[in-house]
Amino acid sequence: MGDLLGVAVLGAGHMGADHVRRLDRVVSGARVAAVADPDVARAEEAVAGIAGASVHTETEAALDAPGVRAVLIASPGPAHEEALLAALARGLPVLCEKPMVPDSAGALRVVEAEARLGRRLAQIGFMRRYDDGYRRLKALLDEGRLGRPLMLHCVHRNVSSPKDFTSAMLIDSSVSHEIDAARWLLGQELTAVTVLRPRPSAGAPEGLSDPQFVLFETDGGALVDVEVFVNCGFGYQVRCEAVCEAGSARIGDDHGMLVSARGAAAAEVPQDYLVRFVDAYDREVQSWVDATRQGRVTGPTAWDGYAASAVAEAGVRALESGARTAVGLAPRPELYAGN
Amino acid sequence: MGDLLGVAVLGAGHMGADHVRRLDRVVSGARVAAVADPDVARAEEAVAGIAGASVHTETEAALDAPGVRAVLIASPGPAHEEALLAALARGLPVLCEKPMVPDSAGALRVVEAEARLGRRLAQIGFMRRYDDGYRRLKALLDEGRLGRPLMLHCVHRNVSSPKDFTSAMLIDSSVSHEIDAARWLLGQELTAVTVLRPRPSAGAPEGLSDPQFVLFETDGGALVDVEVFVNCGFGYQVRCEAVCEAGSARIGDDHGMLVSARGAAAAEVPQDYLVRFVDAYDREVQSWVDATRQGRVTGPTAWDGYAASAVAEAGVRALESGARTAVGLAPRPELYAGN
Amino acid sequence: MGDLLGVAVLGAGHMGADHVRRLDRVVSGARVAAVADPDVARAEEAVAGIAGASVHTETEAALDAPGVRAVLIASPGPAHEEALLAALARGLPVLCEKPMVPDSAGALRVVEAEARLGRRLAQIGFMRRYDDGYRRLKALLDEGRLGRPLMLHCVHRNVSSPKDFTSAMLIDSSVSHEIDAARWLLGQELTAVTVLRPRPSAGAPEGLSDPQFVLFETDGGALVDVEVFVNCGFGYQVRCEAVCEAGSARIGDDHGMLVSARGAAAAEVPQDYLVRFVDAYDREVQSWVDATRQGRVTGPTAWDGYAASAVAEAGVRALESGARTAVGLAPRPELYAGN
Amino acid sequence: MGDLLGVAVLGAGHMGADHVRRLDRVVSGARVAAVADPDVARAEEAVAGIAGASVHTETEAALDAPGVRAVLIASPGPAHEEALLAALARGLPVLCEKPMVPDSAGALRVVEAEARLGRRLAQIGFMRRYDDGYRRLKALLDEGRLGRPLMLHCVHRNVSSPKDFTSAMLIDSSVSHEIDAARWLLGQELTAVTVLRPRPSAGAPEGLSDPQFVLFETDGGALVDVEVFVNCGFGYQVRCEAVCEAGSARIGDDHGMLVSARGAAAAEVPQDYLVRFVDAYDREVQSWVDATRQGRVTGPTAWDGYAASAVAEAGVRALESGARTAVGLAPRPELYAGN
């Protein structure tokens, strides 16, 4: 069918290759039209067996390749700003993996470029908004029968951190998910952040401040606390409890199967975020493809990407200073009102 | 892309229309090429907005329509035999909703036709095999670390039964899912069945024997019990516990969110099988499309469809007689060895 | 205080010694006045350090010892009938461990003796009626908001069976707990029983039919199924789900602590019934002491003890015959009306 | 029996009357010898029907009454210091309800008096140490297989607060339980406290800062966070999750019965601490009676009572200042080494 959405995928690393596979074999209505990666062999490997997908080393060449009608950015964070601006300049709808732009100044330039354009083209890859649990929690909070949310208690645990993971990355890479999730669930901006550091776990690499306990205040008077523990050793656990005026709701404790053996009744804990959130990734990309084919943008905005970067930057400063740190946000352009 | 799998969908009722939507908007690699339904208006409504899909009132016309390379049968059960034989005669791969053929004699004719053909073309729509919980349970049993399965305890509850639901339909419509699931999980044939009838619930329509308690014996010495209760009033619950020599495993008790309010900590119970098994349906059809495009058949076979019909027939006789009833199966054709 | 209830404990084995400890150190308002056991050394060991407790080898001597105002029978089952009749003859209130009398003919003689006496003196040790979970389930069923109970699904698993445990003992020793619990929860008599035997677990001793699946019908049209598996290997699990017209309720799945470690979130499964039911035993004896001091009998009656024996006997016949077996009960004496 | 422990109960209010009942009818080995309350009618009502219990309006008269060998203090907090000093002066073992002494200066005077005495006589009523869940968590942490504890996440919710409950009382009355539990579970002292105040719930009385989020640091480098919410509206919930280097353990999420009805699978949430902790109270008093009869003191010490008061005072200052507040503790007397 001629109307499959031709997508240029930027970046053919772990995440990029996974998105190529998803567009080719999981998602309905799209096809991979081009892939760009400085490592051309990696790009070719990603598209092996996919008819009609051209391979490029340069971003611009991929965006200009025949059949490209939308862009999925899965390159490393530092390359995002240039890629986003190039996509916006061509009027191409874009799904950009998080972080949108690692530094808030660069993120703000993207916001401003899109605001100048006067219409939304960018969606940011905060895929938790597409997770079934988070969506149910969001729906419950919006419905209002539990009253106003007062606190969110969040847990974010990984089995172990990648090599070269820094103490700041617990905030700007890991907790950035909770930053977006909290803003979205509450519909409020985060205004201040405090980071507490218990004595590091013996299981953490030397010098890494792991775990950390991060506290956010919001402009609606709510409190968000996040335990982030990237070397917990036993599994990938993401939980969120919303405490409201008339009740609380918790997600992330379910299990697919309960096994009684050897003196215990046990539920498996996934070891990897791809296991936990595979459906969310699929739903996110399907939702983006569906909306894009209809000329709409429905997901997290560039403003959400900017706000996440600005809050994370304040969080890293709070980590370093040990003090409560205010978050400064630029004025929100009219384009993002209500989002 | 020219290589999207063109599918003829037979039947445009509730289930057929849902499959049309799934093929068009959810599943990757397929397109709706034709739809057939005696009610032409219904067929046209199902394909509204789908380019390239022809509409027919006759099965054969749909199978012969341009671009049709595979068939999805979602018409009423009594129409399945003819449709399956027509698809087999044309060498078309086919996904047939359950029951494959309601009566075992007819089901056996389909088995024999495919056996004569000498290659497998038909997959039967036992979608529980594609549910994440069932797949995990199957993987655990196959892995063997809990030892041999001794018993399966199953629960199958619906909020309320459709109008005109009969006592026999608790067996041949509802429990037929457990019949297939048990055969698949255990890798054993069911050899006898007993049906017990507690005094019917006040919530069941007059004259309907609801709930029922169904006991199956297997050729591997295992026992399968099923509570089927189609007017339980409160939700759609499907559970299965496998009791093995060294442990037990249970699926169907998980929840997406736990809400504490008004004196209780509660998980929502879905009201509908489409909510509970939507992912299983999507995965089933995606898996069928993927395999079909590669010229393979990987799902439940016509033999599975026949066996389910034969066991269900014995179950209905057991319901009527109140006695333990042996299941008689025809010899298994070579084509289905190991399946 | 002079008014502590002086109790003669018959039997100083595992269970008897535990009751001596309980009366002396856990329960309020009672004291051990006498202990009888054919093995005098065992009796003396049981009362070591307890002032005022005399030691005997003969039942009658213990019942007649100074200060004895009530009797707790914890001797082997075959000795119960004689002990009960002796206690009744003296007008002594008695708490008798289950089985009241192993054979229903003997049990009926006790019932008749008490009926002739014209007042209740005997309470039978069905301690599940004192377990918090069972009490909550009973209260819920009695309250009626779930409607009439239609089915009870029961599970009774032990880590391993004692030496010399026979296939019949799965019924008359293990399932006898479920027999009483079902009668009590439903307020109905059990009228027929069928026993199914899956191929025995490799973990069961040679020749033992373990697990078994036992089905009871009731005079109220309900169905009770019991999985009994006394060599399940992994823990002591007792569960009960009551399926009613407007909902279901399940006990026995709770846990004191959930531990996430090594890839699983696990709740400990107790290894022993004393761990699972310690509070029930304490509550049972406290309740008996309290009622006895007030001249009342409030717990399970001799009729309950007789009915349990009669149903278990039918169950053992059903196990041997493989057929559905009716339960025959003697007429219920007026003394037990409403109990 | 002459050797029942005669106890003087000080205070015949809600808690005192409950302890009188417990000593008389639940606990083994003790009897109520005297009750004192300024309201003599209330004291007389509490002991109605209890033989041998004298009634007093003055503490000293009760302590000196015939048969008194131990003291249980359940009077209002401000009366505790005088009562404790009087008991110590007489060499009487004492179980004192929390708070031991509301102000840390007074608490320190009790510590010093006992230290001068050179032997421990006082046990403080931190009954959570006797709750089954807390004991299992403590045992798990002490066992060490999860490694060093890094964080405790605590939740303490009440349906509604008593009249005249103040913002400070969320700390020094409610959170004081978590203060002791954290010290005991970790075996560490709390060194600093920060209190965060989300915008109060609409369900809280005007002017009450409810909920609050309290953060404690420990001398072992651990972090303890407590959500305290005394007008949560829906139930009494006490949870604690210990996050350790190699796993986490959570208590307080269990349930006695799961009821599926009306679209939800729900566990009841208790409405009252007496329901949740009734067994802990019974076990606490039984344990105190047992130890006292053997001339030993085994429970929380006067030092624990003092430390809880000192930490709570720092917490109230932190609540008022909004700043992180250090906890100052007096040197620990030799008598309490290792406790």
UniProtKB/TrEMBL annotation, chains A, B, C, D:
<comment type="similarity">
    <text>Belongs to the Gfo/Idh/MocA family.</text>
</comment>
<dbReference type="InterPro" id="IPR050424">
    <property type="entry name" value="Gfo-Idh-MocA_inositol_DH"/>
</dbReference>
<dbReference type="InterPro" id="IPR000683">
    <property type="entry name" value="Gfo/Idh/MocA-like_OxRdtase_N"/>
</dbReference>
<comment type="function">
    <text>Involved in the oxidation of myo-inositol (MI) to 2-keto-myo-inositol (2KMI or 2-inosose).</text>
</comment>
<comment type="subunit">
    <text>Homotetramer.</text>
</comment>
<dbReference type="InterPro" id="IPR036291">
    <property type="entry name" value="NAD(P)-bd_dom_sf"/>
</dbReference>
<dbReference type="Pfam" id="PF02894">
    <property type="entry name" value="GFO_IDH_MocA_C"/>
</dbReference>
<dbReference type="InterPro" id="IPR023794">
    <property type="entry name" value="MI/DCI_dehydrogenase"/>
</dbReference>
<keyword id="KW-0560">Oxidoreductase</keyword>
<protein>
    <recommendedName>
        <fullName>Inositol 2-dehydrogenase</fullName>
        <ecNumber>1.1.1.18</ecNumber>
    </recommendedName>
</protein>
<dbReference type="Pfam" id="PF01408">
    <property type="entry name" value="GFO_IDH_MocA"/>
</dbReference>
<dbReference type="InterPro" id="IPR004104">
    <property type="entry name" value="Gfo/Idh/MocA-like_OxRdtase_C"/>
</dbReference>
<feature type="domain" description="Gfo/Idh/MocA-like oxidoreductase N-terminal">
    <location>
        <begin position="6"/>
        <end position="121"/>
    </location>
</feature>
<feature type="domain" description="Gfo/Idh/MocA-like oxidoreductase C-terminal">
    <location>
        <begin position="138"/>
        <end position="323"/>
    </location>
</feature>
<keyword id="KW-0520">NAD</keyword>
